[in-house]
Amino acid sequence: MDDATVQALGKLSEALEVVEQARGFLYGFHRLTGTADLALGEAVAMLRDAGHEETAQRLDSEIVGRNVIHGRWTFQVVEEYDDGYYSDFKTAEAEVRQELAGGKKHLFEAEMKERRRTHGRPHHEALPAEPPSGLEE
Fold first, then answer.
1. Is residue 108 domain-resident?
2. Is residue 87 part of a domain?
3. Alpha-carbon distance 105 to 13, whole Å?
4. What pLDDT, in 10s, does the model give residues 110-127?
């Protein structure tokens, strides 16, 4: 395969990795927002117990369980991202990789590894010869 194609596939792989990282951040946003909402619920209960019913009621009715984006909780944002952009991006990347490289992944990185490793040195092998001790099936 020519270098230009390998480089282009490498850039496509890089782009997918960034999308994967963005997806992770989105899941983090989902988890953190949910954790905050549950903690807020606890704070509301504590305010009630401390005799601050009006304040607790205001927080409970205005913020607890509120949509984070118009009409959506974070799980809905995650689902829409996963089912739309993320899914389409992964499919497109796989199709291009199949079309141009027979489905092989990380060709750019494999070539870089071959250039950068020190042949014949321990821990610089091209491929694992056998599983590390204790990982046998």
1. no
2. yes
3. 8
4. 888 989 999 988 888 888
Q: In the chain, helix, strand, coil percent, each to 5? A: 70, 0, 30
Angle at 89 between CA 79 and CA 16, to 5 degrees: 105
Distance of CA 104 to CAs 33, 98, 108, 115, Å? 38, 7, 10, 19
Domain-located, residue 135:
no
Q: What is the distance, to the nearest Å, from the Cα of residue 129 to the centroid of all Cα atoms in its chain?
A: 31
> What are the pLDDT digits (tens) for 50-70?
999 999 999 999 999 999 999
Query: Residue 121 falls within a domain, yes or no?
Result: no
The torsion defined by the Cα of 52, 55, 61 and 64, in degrees rounded to 10, comes to: -90
pTM equals: 0.79
Domain assignment of residue 47, given as a range: 3-102
Question: Is-contact 27 81, C-beta < 8 A?
Answer: no
Mean pLDDT along residues 94-117: 91
Asked if 93 contacts 12 with a C-beta cutoff of 8 angstroms, the reply is yes
> Contact at 8 Å (CB) between 10 and 107?
yes
